[in-house]
Amino acid sequence: MKNILIVNGSPRGDRSHSRRLVELFVNQWQLQNPADLLKYREVGRANLPHISEDWIAAAFTPPAERTLKMKVCLSKSDELVDELLWADVLIMGVPMYNWSVPSSFKAYMDQVMRIGRTWTFESGVPDGVYKGLLENKKMYLVSSRGDFGYEKGGHNEHMNFQSTYVKLVFGIMGIKDVEEVILENEEYGGEQFSESIKKAEKRIKSMLRTGGVKEITMCEA
Ligand SMILES: Cc1cc2nc3c(=O)[nH]c(=O)nc-3n(C[C@H](O)[C@H](O)[C@H](O)COP(=O)(O)O)c2cc1C
Q1: Ligand 1 centroid to residue 74 C-alpha, Å
Q2: Ligand 1 centroid vs 19 CA: distance in angstroms?
Q3: Is-contact 87 5, C-beta < 8 A?
Q4: Model confidence over 151-177: pLDDT tens digits?
């Protein structure tokens, strides 16, 4: 039995394509792994706090020396980090906004990038070598984009500060096993977008099949 954390980063609700793909992924996963525990973390529509001067002071104070005020200041961050530590598998839906991630998702990453909890320095003091503390976890990253060509070798590769950034930050925290589902072309609509949806859905189904679990019969809508 595994613990599955589902993180949705789109500010959109029903109109969000990343949410729909994440849900497809979760439904398939559940059919194949009914005993697994699921937890949803809303990010895109949650208004998570940005880190503040007090937050920084608290995070960089050794836990034993933190005042009550500092502990309260870090409580949301602690809750988010506890979830990550609990999870064996992360399923994240993240749109591309202005070639990066939505600011709400950036706020989330800032809250969970916690020294001493999700990462540390290799030697224990600043040495430029980061050691991730989130071990033995796998991430499925569902990226949604309006344009296309952001993959390696694509004409927009140099403008991809979204999936490359998410993978970098979570990689520093120790999550290096990442599989991606990419939905692109939303801004073009029509056939071009329909093809992209089909490709992303196919990818989800094939990824779950190769995960060592039995194939399931889908009920087409
Ligand atoms: C404010 C904003 C900025 C965007 N910036 C980009 C961008 O830089 N590159 C891109 O390819 N698409 C961009 N898009 C398109 C989104 O990535 C696309 O609509 C995606 O499907 C959003 O995810 P969602 O459907 O899960 O909400 C942007 C959309 C919005 C609303």
Answers
A1: 31
A2: 13
A3: yes
A4: 999 999 999 999 999 999 999 999 999
- Pairwise CA distance, residues 203 & 142, whole Å: 11
Of 80, 70, 72, nearest to 111 by C-alpha is 80
Domains of the chain: 3-209 (3.40.50.360)
CB of 16 closer than 8 Å to CB of 144: yes
Q: Which atom of ligand 1 is nearest to the CA of 20?
A: 26
In this predicted model, what pLDDT tens digit does every residue of 20-65 receive, in sequence order? 999 999 999 999 999 999 999 999 999 999 999 999 999 999 999 9
pLDDT in tens, 199-220: 999 999 998 876 544 443 343 3
Q: Are strands 130-132 and 119-121 parallel, antiparallel or unpaired?
A: antiparallel
Q: Are 151 and 189 in contact (CB under 8 A)?
A: no
Whether the predicted model's global pTM rises above the 0.85 cut: yes
Residues 67 and 63: their CA atoms lie apart, in Å, by: 9
Cα(14) to ligand 1 centroid in Å equals 15
Helix intervals (H) in the chain:
17-32, 53-59, 68-73, 75-86, 103-112, 163-172, 190-209
Q: Are the C-beta atoms of 4 and 91 separated by less than 8 Å?
A: yes
Distance from C-alpha of 201 to C-alpha of 210, rounded to nearest angstrom: 15
